[in-house]
Amino acid sequence: MFRRFLSVLALALAFAGTPALRLATVAAPASIVFAVSSAHAQSPYPLGNIWELGDSKIWGVTDPPGSCGPRDPQYPFISSAGGAFVGTLVGGADNGAQLTPCPITGLPLLSDGHSGYHISDIISGYAGWYGSISAPNRVILHIGTNDLLAIQAGVSGWTMDKLTSDFATLMADLMALLPQSTPLFVSNMDPMPGIYFIPQFTPYNEFIKAQVKQYQRQGRLVYLIDVYGGSGMVPIANPTAGACYNSGNVHENLFGYSLKGLWFNHAMQTLKP
């Protein structure tokens, strides 16, 4: 499994066009620790506690099952054994399967990703989850997948107006919750084949971008993780689009999550001196 992960991550590096990154493995006393570092890396930059908040695409529904979704691919970038950063992934105690060690790293790489959750569910739960964890120094938000799926399915009450209103409420709540010094990285929707073609997909991505810009104008540390326009994902029109997704066409497979590990690295570079 470990060798497979290294080969997939190396392929993702090549696919994303990031030749400045190199892959290395280091033996640790209790486990194998692996790291991806830049060609001119100094000491790892401390990120502190990293809180990932959202739905199943944060939780890690993926193929192979139980591989901790994006967190195993992220770990090389935040390990102390040569990664570009050093940090701790934190999450709520009710986060189910993510409390067990990830099969690749053997570590409990936590988050507050919740399978099946809508934006309104995150609004209802975020304050309690925040109170149960060590204060985060970085926050990553990815939410809206299930709202779009509900709209696609024609579920009563689920509309574009509800989607944008709920997202705006969540953003305002998080801005009130988080200290001014805590950066929030907001992910837009990646081009998942399962919902890419519904009319609300692109407007929602534009609304996310507008919300980020709104809080940037207010001087807040809010950044867009563009996993659509700048994703490196195989274009939807390409018949090989499934290379990044599992059979459900919503959740990434190991290759897709490896790409997200790269996006995580690029996002964290934003605040690195």
Can you offer a commentary on this structure?
With 273 residues, the chain is of the alpha/beta class. The protein has one domain: Rossmann fold, CATH 3.40.50. Helix content is 37%, strand content 16%. It is built from 8 helices and 8 strands, in the order H-E-E-E-H-H-E-E-H-E-H-H-E-H-E-H. It has helices spanning 2-16, 56-59, 71-78, 119-131, 145-153, 160-177, 201-217, 254-269, and strands at residues 21-27, 32-38, 45-54, 85-90, 112-113, 138-142, 184-187, 222-225. Strands 3, 4, 5, 6, 7 and 8 form a 6-stranded parallel β-sheet that branches. Strands 1-2 form a two-stranded antiparallel sheet. Helix 4 runs parallel beside helix 6 and helix 6 (160-177) packs parallel to helix 7 (201-217). The longest helix is centred in the middle third of the chain and has 18 residues, at 160-177. It is globular, with a radius of gyration of 18 Å. The chain starts with a helix and ends with a helix.
